UniProtKB/TrEMBL annotation:
Start and end residues of each Histidine kinase domain: 248-458
Keywords for the protein's UniProt record, in alphabetical order: Coiled coil, Kinase, Membrane, Phosphoprotein, Transferase, Transmembrane, Transmembrane helix
Annotated catalysed reactions: ATP + protein L-histidine = ADP + protein N-phospho-L-histidine
Top-level taxon of the source organism: Bacteria
Membrane-spanning segments: 9-30, 154-177
Protein's UniProt name: histidine kinase
């Protein structure tokens, strides 16, 4: 039980309540001692009234009055005159004097604790103010042993009562905390165990129900975590299924495109000028598609090769990408421009870099086309000190908030209706394979700008 949260809560509650009772015990004992001595002063004053009524008292009566007051003698000061009212022999001399008229709380507590832990029997003088202003002061002498016995008896009763109160309070607090805290925690833990057994099952997602603010926040956070995890697992399963389907499709598509390559070889023999001009581009497109199918199949086997880095002329590759985009939508009012230094060469894989630029420029073209207005797609390249920098910008409407939030997340970062959101994911992964970065510089009503950075040398930027 001591290792459980409920057991430790019960033990700690009992200890803390006992500590609180001890803090109450100390001033209570001091107050009891003060009341004890004030009672003796009051009794002594009442005994002295008998002497005021009759100057001559019988010695036996005087002794009885002192015995009832539990004092040895009584001194009363009236009208600036100090008068010994009652007296009896004292067993020993006075060891200490206590003046209750101006004693502070700390002084009373200190004296009470000293008396409680001092077992000897002493004679002390106690000075106080008479009740009902029956004089200037009253002074008595008394023994400390009876007072200490009374203090110990009172203290034991206080401690026993404190122990009972502590146990009752601890039990009540334990059951209250068990109902308000421990049961909800156990319920959450039970839900977590059931959810862990089948995280793909959305029916096992936890539903918050606690009325305690902190527990409610924890339950809502747990629900969000489980919801996100379930969606991620479903997305992972869908991606696995999609990967299997794509591998099968790519296998058959590769065979079809291989046959198409054989036909393009004959088209190249045509004497038609238009066919001669278009045939190489058609051959290049089909060859690129065949390579893509082969890469897809290799990826399905977890054997996708890295980029084959070579020094390539960037302007020729950009011109090919632009020609492909113009042919894709010949009737649009979109202009394509390239600002590339002459003879600029970059270290990259030509096929993969073509896919990167084609994805970016296709996204830009489709964004402008969706507005129904003319626009421009501009590609610019710079030869930096440690890296090549390529910028693709457009005058489109900018990316919507959801697309910016999931920009490089598959199937979630699509900017247009019906888009898969894979273009930027593919481009980003290909650039990372070159040791570079693809980043969104800006987007808004004035257009969107993407930056590609390709490192030189050993791949460090």
């Amino acid at each position: 039980m001591i290792h459980s949260l409920s057991g430790r809560l019960l033990i700690l509650t009992t200890i803390f309540v006992m500590l609180a009772e001890v803090l109450i015990f100390v001033p209570s004992i001091a107050r009891f001692r003060e009341e004890y001595m004030l009672t003796r002063l009051e009794r002594a004053q009442i005994a002295s009234l008998a002497l005021l009524a009759d100057d001559m008292l019988d010695p036996e009566l005087e002794e009885e009055l002192l015995r009832n007051a539990e004092v040895f003698n009584v001194v009363l000061r009236r009208d600036e005159a100090r008068q010994l009212m009652l007296a009896s022999p004292m067993p020993r001399t006075v060891s200490q004097t206590y003046d209750l008229r101006d004693a502070t709380a700390m002084v009373l507590i200190r004296d009470a604790m000293l008396r409680l832990f001092r077992p000897g029997n002493e004679v002390v003088r106690v000075i106080g103010a008479p009740v009902r202003e029956a004089g200037l002061l009253i002074e008595v002498t008394m023994e400390t042993a009876p007072m200490r016995v009374a203090m110990l008896d009172y203290g034991i009763r206080i401690l026993m009562l404190s122990a009972v109160i502590s146990v009752i309070t601890a039990v009540l607090l334990f059951f209250a905390m068990r109902a308000l805290l421990l049961k909800p925690i156990k319920r959450v833990a039970g839900h977590m165990q059931r959810y862990a057994a089948a995280p793909e099952d959305a029916r096992r997602i936890f539903e918050p129900s606690s009325s305690v603010t902190e527990l409610r926040e924890a339950e809502e956070a747990l629900k969000k975590l489980q919801t996100d995890l379930t969606q991620a697992l479903k997305q992972k399963e869908r991606l696995a299924q999609l990967g299997s389907a794509v591998s099968k499709i790519s296998h058959d598509l590769r065979n079809i495109l291989t046959s198409a390559q054989l036909f393009t070889d004959r088209i190249e023999m045509s004497e038609d000028p238009t066919v001669k001009r278009m045939a190489p581009k058609l051959v290049g497109s089909i060859t690129r598609a065949v390579h893509l199918c082969e890469s897809t199949l290799a990826f399905g086997k977890a054997e996708e090769p890295g980029p084959t880095l070579t020094l390539m002329a960037l302007d020729e590759l950009v011109e090919e990408v632009i020609d492909g985009e113009r042919l894709a939508d010949p009737e649009s009012e979109i202009s394509f421009a390239a600002d590339i230094p002459a003879q600029l060469t970059v270290r990259a894989d030509p096929e993969q870099m073509y896919r990167v630029l084609a994805n970016l420029m296709r996204n830009a073209r489709q964004a402008i086309t969706a507005t129904g207005k003319p626009g421009e797609v501009h590609l610019r390249a710079e030869d930096g000190a440690g890296a090549w920098c390529i910028t693709v910008s457009d005058t489109g409407p900018g990316l919507p908030p959801k697309a910016r939030e999931h920009l490089f997340t598959a199937f979630q970062g699509g900017a247009r209706k019906g888009g898969s959101g894979l273009g930027l994911v593919i481009a980003s992964e290909l650039v990372r394979g070159h040791g570079g970065t693809l980043a969104l510089r800006s987007t808004g009503p004035e257009g969107t700008v993407f930056d590609i950075t390709l490192p030189k040398g050993d791949g460090t930027l």
